[in-house]
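Let us practice reading a record.
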Amino acid sequence: MNNRRRMTGVVTSNKMTKTVVVEITRKFRHPLYKKVVYSSTRVKAHDEIGCQIGDEVQIVETRPLSRDKRWAVEAVVKRETRTADQGVGE
């Protein structure tokens, strides 16, 4: 096993060719106020698998592939089943 960082997140966009936007959310307790805080980060990841919006994926750190692509999709943890009635503007 190598020492690359691995994170899990949800695919929020797949409109680009071989690129997906993955949103990584983390939950932590604030050090001073002790309140639970949610933080999210959106990164672009290289996708050879063909992920869909809503899939939970595991991404791994890679060499720079483009100006803002530093991650690659390693595996799909959970597939999202989408129905035809989801969406905006009916």
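A brief commentary: The mean pLDDT is 92.
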